Amino acid sequence: AQGLLALLGSGSTPTAGPHAQPARRAADFLRRCCRPDGLIAGNEAAAHGPMYSHAYATLALAECCGEVVDPDLRRQLRAAGQVIAGSQHAAGGWRYQPVPTAGDASVTAAMLVAIRGLVEAGIDVDAAVADRASDFIARLQNPDGGFRYLAEPGPSAAPRTAAAVFALQLAGVRGEPIRRGLQWLDQHPLTLDSDDGY
Fold first, then answer.
1. Does the pLDDT of residue 120 top 90, yes or no?
2. How crowded is residue 154: how many other Cβ atoms within 10 Å of its Cβ?
3. Cystine design at 40: which of 14, 45, 57, 85 (Cβ 3.0–4.6 Å)?
4. Measured between alpha carbons, how far apart are the two ends of the chain, in Å?
């Protein structure tokens, strides 16, 4: 999914551009990973669960929607959106598995970006799902402006702060939360030898 997003970002699509063939093969692979229940996942044995994959694959396929004229792709994306909506926790977040358990910053940010991709592709998503996700992420902002991983108190870190700020911006959030998050990132630049672990 992330490889396809890189190809799409370079200007190639499954139907045009210098990397059209790899983009088409990647999109076809992701579509084969679409399960009947709507979950998009492959072999997640090395991961905590399939929800990161689901979010990134949903986003990548949504980005292809205007280029791939196939009603089945739209059906797959609607089903993927239903998995997103159905696995959101009442507090607004998501975790590693497609069940409504308490969320974390990174999976929830990935889901919020995927929701934006679905909306941009013309796939209906209940606005309340995105609103709850935005509210959940906003509650993870620490007093220092950075974002923690879970609802429980924890340290701010650059990867989750960057993901949270980006997702909130895509959701239309403006003002203090964004300004404070960007200020925190300016004061804590991510380096290649970061001891954050990610």
1. yes
2. 14
3. 57
4. 19
User: Under DSSP, is residue 34 helix (H, G, I), strand (E, B) or coil?
Assistant: strand
Determine phi and psi for 86, rounding to 5 degrees: -75, -15
* Residue percentage of the chain with pLDDT more than 90: 88
Q: What is the pLDDT of residue 197?
A: 61
Q: Can you tell me the distance from the alpha carbon of 49 to that of 44, in angstroms, rounded to the nearest whole number?
A: 6
Please name the residues in contact with 49: beta carbons below 8 A apart, sequence gap of 6 or more: 95, 96, 97, 98
67 and 16 Cβ atoms separated by less than 8 Å? yes
Q: What is the pLDDT of residues 8-18, one digit of tens each?
A: 999 999 999 99
pLDDT at residue 198 is higher than 80: no
Instruction: Tally the residues of the chain.
Output: 198
Residue 183 corresponds to which tokens in the numbers above? 């200020």
d(CA 162, CA 179): 12
Residue 14 phi, psi dihedral angles, 5° rounding: -65, -10
Q: What is the rounded average pLDDT for all residues in the chain?
A: 94
pTM over 0.90: yes
| Nearest alpha-carbon partner for 165 in 186, 137, 123 | 137
CA distance 56 to 133: 16
Residue with tokens 């902002």: 141
